[in-house]
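A further point concerns the way the authors explain their paired sequence and structure data. An entry of this sort, consisting of the sequence and the corresponding backbone structure tokens, reads as follows:
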Amino acid sequence: MKRLCCLILSAVFIVTAFSGCGFFTGADADSFLFSQEDKEISVKAEEILAYEPARPDAVGDYMKQKLSGNELYIYNAVAYAVDNGCTDITVPEKYACTTPEDYIRAITFFSCDSPFLEHNYTADGTFRLVENKSAIGTSYSFTLPRNSTAFTKEKTLAYEKAKEIVDNIPDELMTDKQKLNYLYDYVCTNVSYVDAVKSYSYDTVPIYDALVDGRETICDGFADTLVLLLSLAGIDSFAVEGINDRNTGHVVVCAMVEGKYYYFDPTNDANVYNNGFKSGFYYALSDKQLSAYFTAEEDFRTVLPVCPVSLTGEKADIIVSADDDNTVNEAKNILLRDGTVNVCFKDDLSDADRQNFGRKLATAFGSSLINTTANGITGYAK
């Protein structure tokens, strides 16, 4: 498989004692100030607290519900900035957070609820909080450099393409599970992974890359694209940031299906698909399956829902409960038809029986097979 993307985790650098009026010119101690290219916008704090996203059908609030106090002001201020293409946000002292980490938490949680703010939301991976002193009082500023109006146009195009995809879900797919399965497969089979370190340009929006321009993106783009599509389909979902088993930053998705939450990893399944297998190895995972290769960032660990069961087996062509020739022949026929077959072994099936199944299948097929295994699914391909 291709190496998974590198999520640039935000570091903190505090600039203090910035004298003069700074970004706070013309505002007051109860207003937030936003910089939009050649102009500034002043918004009362009460309006910020009550602010609703411009595209509510595409933005969830699971992570928002885990915030309190002034973190909610920061979360909503970011939502306002994203909707209006503002790159700089200045927060009055009364509504400021206690530490830079609190700002990062609020911004990161917004980026997980909303596909319109990428997880690498700073240009160089470093979050800088600036303290401003003026006659009006103290305020604190930070920048979202990839949030200009040029990026807003790309987000709009991605949103429109996502709506088109959701509007074209086949009429016979009526349940949330059917729609989720369709949209998951769409992302895994229509979007390609590009290495974040070697060749990805951050001068663009990941969901735009995935849906509109070339259909190549990093894991951020895979996760945010799935969140965008699921949200438009009326399915609750949000992104989760963490580290994979290669100690590389990674983003997965948590979504609700029939009242229960599951984890989804479209980046890994796209890599499986691009290596000649069907997708579905990382579909609707349990906590245990996800934790085998992914660890959520610390801020997420106490707020994530419990996901004790998995639906991974539902993506399998065959569920094997015993070593028998009929199942081998069934798998052979699927291989002949599709060129690949996904097999789910029952938990109590011995390793010897699993290996014997693979040997029998290769013999029945009359050719050597390649295979890959993850999260209870074993895929065989020509």
Remarks:
- Confidence is low (pLDDT under 50) at residues 1-26.
- The first helix runs from residue 45 to 49.
